[in-house]
Amino acid sequence: MKTPVAESRSEAASPGPDRPVLSVRDLDVTFRARSPVLAVRGVSYDLAAGEHVGLVGESGSGKSAGALALVRLLPDYADVSGTVMLDGADLLRLNERELRAVRGDQVGIVYQDPFSSLNPVLTIGKQLTEVLSKHKGLRARAARREAARLLETVGVPNAEERISDHPHQFSGGMRQRAVIAMAVAPRPALLIADEPTTALDVTVQAQILELLQELTSEHGTTMLLITHDLGVVAGVTQRLMVMYGGRIVEASTTEDVFARPAHPYTVALHRSLPRIDARQERLVTIEGQPPDPTRPIEGCPFAPRCPSRIDRCTVENPPLMTLPTARRATTAGWELPTISERDGNPVPGPASPHLTACWNPPLPEARSAGAGGAG
């Protein structure tokens, strides 16, 4: 039986530069509580076929909530709105049966804690063969052979023997490799890797990232890599989106974001990275606290922590703008309608220019000195 996404693929042309694999528009996530928690606010972006994109931000910025909302894996008390188009099917409008067919088949997920995402009472082989039987239609013996091959592919030694082990018999790195094998087994169109190297030592982190890059490149899989660490995405992704306060505040190619950061929060993230070419008595930190997600944000969400904010930052939230527009936005007459007429509503995507949500983007000398522009 074809999934709704598979049906849309057979009826329409293959995804190309003008038709992304994943198209997210105006994604909002609110958790119902005594004071509603506004976790994600109006997020939009496109992902192209085979593209590797990083989503970066500190804890609480909305990265994981926004990613899990794509396939409706958030708890029942989360309200999600917007559109999430995967090859022509809106995942937020599918019923539960249709959505179960998409999860694990067209969308694979690698969670940050492999132990909690594996069933502790089932063997690794049982969990892998279940995926292969459900999504690839393999019978028991063929599924077990394929499961062993997959474990070998992701670097698990003695795969034929280890397939009968339970999760507690694997190390943290080996468990994550098993989870990756399950995620890529059906060859999904999209792989969401949510902090896949958390709690792993540096050597294993590098191995896991290299493995993800190799497998997704081999199968032409689009990968969304979520992390709080800029260093993790440096050599793995082609594009970066930086989130803060539930919003995307900067987006461009990975090279451009590293060479020419255009939002003071991104500059601050760069400064907080330890350097091996300079002696540092103390690591640089970002002063202040992230915005309270239970309260509406007036102005730029980063303004209270920005060392060089201007008056406009505290009263008006900047939209995503191209850099030329952002540099003119402080001049007279450049109100939001003017900006909208000049730029339209730019959406981060493979063909989009460098975008920033800042009323006064940092200049080159400010970037090198570590001082941001306005919030």
Q: Could you say which overall geometry the principal axes of the C-alpha atoms support?
A: globular
The CATH topology of the largest domain, please?
Answer: Rossmann fold
Tally the beta strands.
12
Radius of gyration: 22 Å
CATH first level of the largest domain: which class?
Answer: Alpha Beta
Instruction: Indicate the CATH architecture of the largest domain.
Output: 3-Layer(aba) Sandwich
- Residue-averaged pLDDT: 86
Q: Helix segment count?
A: 15
Q: Strand order across the biggest sheet?
A: 6-7-8-3-9-10-12-11
Q: How much strand content do the residues show?
A: 15-25%
Helix content: 25-40%
The domain count comes to 2
Head-to-tail CA distance between termini: 50 Å
In this structure, how is the largest beta sheet organized? 8 strands, mixed
What's the SSE pattern? HEEEHEEHEHHHHHEHEHEEHHEHHEH
In the predicted model, the low-confidence regions spanning at least 5 consecutive residues are 6-17, 370-375
Derived from helix and strand composition plus strand pairing, the structural class reads: alpha/beta
CATH superfamily grouping of the largest domain: P-loop containing nucleotide triphosphate hydrolases
How would you describe this structure to a colleague?
The chain has 375 residues and is α/β, with parallel strands linked by helices. The chain has two domains: 4-237, P-loop containing nucleotide triphosphate hydrolases (Rossmann fold, 3-Layer(aba) Sandwich); 243-274 and 293-369, no CATH class. It is built from 15 helices and twelve strands. The strands form two sheets. It has an eight-stranded mixed beta sheet with strand order 6-7-8-3-9-10-12-11, sandwiched between helices. Strands 2-1-4-5 form a four-stranded antiparallel beta sheet. Strand 7, helix 9 and strand 8 (222-227) form a beta-alpha-beta unit. The model is unreliable at 6-17 and 370-375 (pLDDT under 50).
